[in-house]
TrEMBL record:
Region (Disordered): 43-81
The protein, known as: Uncharacterized protein
Basic and acidic residues composition bias: residue spans: 55-81
């Protein structure tokens, strides 16, 4: 399983940390669903749930429906730094 791409700022919750749903430790990170989870914990969950429903974006498998990568950007105006 590949690593998740969570470059989008939507994954960082500035309002504060919540307990990760996987390890219970505080994290400012959020999955696409808004679920608080560390990126590594989400990747680990994906590894342990290979049969979970997949999230497809234009035919590409970006991970599971629960934890998946950001779709690739078509234009680079916003830039990723
Ligand atoms: Zn965690």
């Amino acid at each position: 399983m590949g690593l998740l791409n969570w470059n989008s700022s939507q994954h960082y919750e500035h309002a504060g940390d919540y307990a990760c749903t996987q390890c219970g430790k505080p994290t400012p990170l959020r999955a696409h669903s808004g679920e608080p989870v560390h990126k590594v914990c989400a990747e680990d969950w994906n590894d342990r749930n290979p049969n979970a429903p997949r999230h497809l974006h234009e035919e590409r498998d970006l991970g599971t429906a629960r934890f998946h990568s950001d779709p690739p950007r078509k234009n680079r105006k916003e830039g990723v730094r």
